Amino acid sequence: MNAPLTWEQTARTLAVEFASRAAAHDAEGSFPFENFEALHQAGLLTLAAPQTLGGQGATLAQLGAVIGAVGYACPATALVLTMQYMQHRSMGRAPPARSWPEPLARKLVAEAAAGVSLVNALRVEPELGSPARGGLPATVARHTPQGWRISGHKVYSTGSPILRWYSVWARTDEAVPRVGNFLVQAGLPGTRIVETWDHLGLRASGSHDVVLDDVLIPHDHALDLRAPADWVGGEPWLQVEMAVMLGALYTGVAQAARDWLVRFLHERKPASLGAALATLPRAQEALGHIEALLLTNQRLVASLARDADEGAPLSAVHSGLIKSITTGNAVQAVEQALALTSNHGLARKNPLERHLRDVLCGRIHTPQDDSARVAAGRLALGL
After folding, report:
1. Which of 83, 84, 102 is nearest to 92 (CA)?
2. Which of 34, 61, 162, 262 could form an SS bridge with 305, CB 3.0 to 4.6 Å?
3. What is the CATH number of domain 7-116?
4. Which pTM was predicted?
5. Average pLDDT, whole number, for the chain?
6. Nearest Cα residue to 96 out of 184, 180, 220, 182
7. Which CATH code for domain 236-381?
8. Pick from 162, 168, 154: which is nearest to 196 by CA?
9. CA trace torsion 23, 24, 29, 31 (10° rounding)
10. Is residue 367 reached through a cis peptide bond, with omega within 30 degrees of 0 on the bond before it?
11. For the chain, where are the E strands, in sequence order?
12. How far is CA 121 from the centre of its chain?
């Protein structure tokens, strides 16, 4: 009798189908709804939620493996899934790190188990930019007898075509404002999606604008309200989880580029050479460099995930550096592949140019390279 598939093996099986559609979704800028139906049917949408809330309670290492497998095939799908996993893991945090009302958390996990139901944080704004850079959000939550009324404009709302829930970063209208997350159900009166996403990479991620105009939500949908100063520095556990999953995602993209390159080097036989490009020492050395970059990433991601799963002390500074290193290595690996393949690598009939466009997006996620390095430098200087 065959042993049941692991979650990573299940993801790799699904990834074959995801990869067959990735080029079309990229060209059209269309959202891969069918991928999420497949993920739901396989039970992977609730993988990160704690067992106490009805989820499967996967370890961070297991989640990274799943994200890497999906990222290999369709990084846009993997990014939306990453955001689902981040939100579900946050539900299980002990106070004060987690302030999800338990009935609300159970409701969202149950919905994801029953059907295609996803949640993501809506944080970035046209004026504010990334909240990680500081500043109060322009999105305002007004406390009324009926509930909170939310008004604002969010950009880069990854997965917006399929999200059932938004965790909206906003400030209160109090004399001394508090800042935090407000859970808003997609489709409520006053919510609308503005289809603005027309990006170089991750074109299938549906990262459109979401506008909220006096949207009414219950009082208990305010998830975590704090004084602005209490948010400075972020949450170490959040930084670690993002570093693992984003590192795995973009390493998956680079691995896909590497695998295509290997096939190309064996198949390409220039008449002037009379043999495959794979026989050239220059090609072998360049591929060896790519192998070193990918091995470094795999080791770093695995080590960080293991530390987190074993309860070792977490450092936001170190995880920020790992995120910066792994995404940078992934970009460099794909660029190396492009340098070996010349015009073939840039031809739209081949996937390498798409992998390059997708992997470049890794640099944009928080923390960006300059922030990660400044934080590490200040720590080293004792500042």
Report:
1. 102
2. 61
3. 1.10.540.10
4. 0.95
5. 94
6. 180
7. 1.20.140.10
8. 154
9. -100
10. yes
11. 118-122, 140-144, 147-157, 163-172, 179-185, 191-194, 208-217, 222-226
12. 11
